[in-house]
Amino acid sequence: MAFPSHHHEALRASVFKTLESFAETPVLDTVDRAIASTLAVVHTAIAEFAQAWNNQHLDPLRMLPPELHTSCLRWLQLHELIAASHVSRDWRAVALAEPTLWNSFDANAFKTSRSDDSDCAEALEAMFLRSRSAPFDFSWRWGPGMSREVRDILSHSQNVQRLQSLEIFGPPNHSPAFISTLIGQPMLQLRRLVVTGLGAPIQFPDVWNDITVPRLQFLGLGETIFPERLQAISSVTKLSLSAPLDCRYLFELFPRVENVLLQNVSTSNLLPRELGTSVTSYSLTSGSRQEDHSLSLLEQGRGWRLVPYMTIESTNVLRPLEWFTSRIDGGWRMQLHVPARLPSVSVTLEKESHGRLAFNMKWADFFTQMTVDLLPPFTANLTALVINEPAHTLPVVAAMTMPNLRTLGLTLGDYAAIEWILDIWLHPSRQPIFAPALREFMLTTTHATPSKATKLIQVVPVLFHLTGRLERLKITSYATSILRDADLSFAWNFCDSIRLTDFEKDLTFDLSASDSLVEGG
């Protein structure tokens, strides 16, 4: 326990102001030494009193097994940990004995409790010292830029070599030149680097390679200038990058990257001719410009293979369909998700064991293209379709030609969506949706009661034109388990089995036409 540093200065200033009008400098020095000596005595007395008080009143830390002491302190935030290290000698000994308590500095969390930038620099310096040689994590998300003191501490050569994670998120008054200099050297411990929002590009280090950054796994960079000649960094597996103008050699620089996110991609970017052999996720976004990547998909992406997860932005549904269906054989699955607030739709095209392609586009464009343009060449092998928001998606489904559709899923938010189907969609003049090969119907609701779900199940033969019996009905909702005792005999007229999944109780029940009940987990 100690007086705050500004109290020391206030005491000295007050005494000096009193003496400076008549005291000589040697006298002032003597007084200063006397004040420091007095403060040391006071601090020692306070520490001894605190220790005696803690011993007498059963300090909770002393009551716990020693192996739990450090675990308790790990629950504290940075400013709380600093305060705890001054509670008593025991607490201080525990806090200082474990370097990993001090090897993670988050400026945002620190600044929520303190406003003095000098305190931030002092805390950072203390944490580098107290964490000893442990790998260090540094994160700066706080609004104002770093002070000179913080920069000097962070850029100290010994501290740079200990950085394991370095995250700097804007604002523009962070100096890109400082960041470029900071990272422009070997960083043997570095595993994660994220630098975004600086308002100007940083320089990618030309000294980086498998020897100088051997542990680097995640790289997230905003606008970046890449040198003409770079050596491969094979340790990087995750990459998030504001796309440079020329991305053709991206996978030569990062040959083992698995997850790739290219941001701010426009039609002027030169994209890789082929995807890296290790890529499992590949996403293109354009930010606020709303670019159409579907042209790049057909032109620059002809050599791309379908990976487990791929996302683009598009204004055209036909081009992604053409690219996707040309890379698969047989049946595939489509999922349409219309958010509560239009005007967009998320489309996912998926082929089991091959991969999937997801894209977003304006709802009006999607509706026109899906209901007017010729889609049968692409939807002929569509075998599974999952939709939500029936007021917008059912008209699309009704207009599509799906001769091989075997599974249709409805994901509904509440009973109002079910009421819309019953009261608005199913009027006498409406023709049933033609799905001659349909064998499975899935209904998932998050808020509708089981009785409402049952009402929708009853009209399945009216909703769809079936040429054969359904093999299975799947109903997933909360409290669905109560339906196992309900009268579902109407369903046996058009289906062979029913699966009830109660996600509230995490239970699954299978019902068959013979009225046998099998409970699953």
From TrEMBL:
InterPro entries attached to this UniProt entry: F-box-like_dom_sf, F-box_dom
Gene3D superfamilies in alphabetical order: 1.20.1280.50
Record-given protein name: F-box domain-containing protein
Organism whose genome encodes this protein: Exidia glandulosa HHB12029
Domain F-box positions: 58-105
Record-linked SUPFAM superfamilies: F-box domain
